[in-house]
Design a protein that fits this description.
- The chain is of the alpha+beta class and about 160 residues long.
- It has a single domain, classed as RutC-like (60s Ribosomal Protein L30, Chain: A, 2-Layer Sandwich), CATH 3.30.1330.40.
- About 30% of the residues lie in helices and about 25% in strands.
- It contains 3 helices and 7 strands, in the order H-E-E-E-E-H-E-H-E-E.
- The strands form 2 sheets. It has a 5-stranded mixed beta sheet, with helices on one face.
- Strand 5, helix 3 and strand 6 form a beta-alpha-beta unit.
- The longest helix has 23 residues.
- The radius of gyration is 15 Å and the shape is globular.
- It starts with a helix and ends with a strand.
C-alpha cells in the first residue's frame, strides 16, 4: 500500500501548505533530506486551540493539535518532495509543547504526531524524536511540530 493509499484509508487528506507568517519557507530540501519549519495546528485556516498545556489546554486537546501539526508538516514536506509517495522515510520529529513548568506529559502529547507518522508511512515512519516543553509558542499555539524526511532515490 502506498503512503497516499494509507492516508486515504485513514480518512485524511493532506491540507494546503500553511503560508509562512515570517521570513522563512515551510520546508527546504538539502540533498536527499527535507526539513520543515515548525508547523502549528492550523485546520481550515485557524488554530485548533490556543493556550498552555497543563493550564488552559487539556493534554488530549494538545495531542489532537500535535497530530494536526504533524499532518501540516507532512504536507509541507510532500510539497517539496513532489508528492507524498516520494517520501522514503521519516527521520526525525521534534515537538514543542507550550506547557506549565510542572507538566511532564510532553512525550504523551507528541505520541499523537509519532503515531500518525507510522499510520501513514508504516515502518518507514519510525523516527527519532524530541518532545520539549516551552513557555510559549507562536500565535499562542499549544504545540509546534517539525520533521525531517528522506526523499526516495532518483527524485
Amino acid at each position: 500500500m502506498t503512503h497516499s493509499e494509507r492516508l486515504a484509508a485513514l480518512g485524511l487528506e493532506l491540507p494546503e501548505v500553511v503560508p509562512p507568517v515570517g521570513s522563512y519557507v515551510p520546508a527546504i530540501r538539502h540533498g536527499e533530506f527535507i526539513t520543515t519549519s515548525g508547523q502549528v495546528p492550523f485546520l481550515d485556516g485557524a488554530l485548533i486551540a490556543t493556550g498552555i498545556v497543563g493550564a488552559t489546554v487539556a493534554p488530549e486537546i494538545a495531542a489532537n493539535c500535535a497530530r494536526q501539526a504533524a499532518l501540516n508538516a507532512i504536507a509541507a514536506a510532500a510539497d517539496v518532495a513532489g508528492g507524498l509517495d516520494n517520501i522514503a522515510a521519516v527521520i526525525r520529529v521534534v515537538g514543542y509543547v507550550a506547557s506549565t513548568s510542572d507538566f511532564g506529559g510532553q512525550p504523551a502529547v507528541m505520541n499523537a504526531a509519532s503515531n500518525l507518522m507510522t499510520d501513514i508511512f508504516g515502518d518507514a515512519g519510525r523516527h527519532a524524536r524530541s518532545a520539549v516543553g516551552v513557555a510559549a509558542l507562536p500565535l499562542g499555539a499549544p504545540v509546534e511540530v517539525e520533521v525531517t524526511v528522506q526523499v526516495r532515490e532518483g527524485v
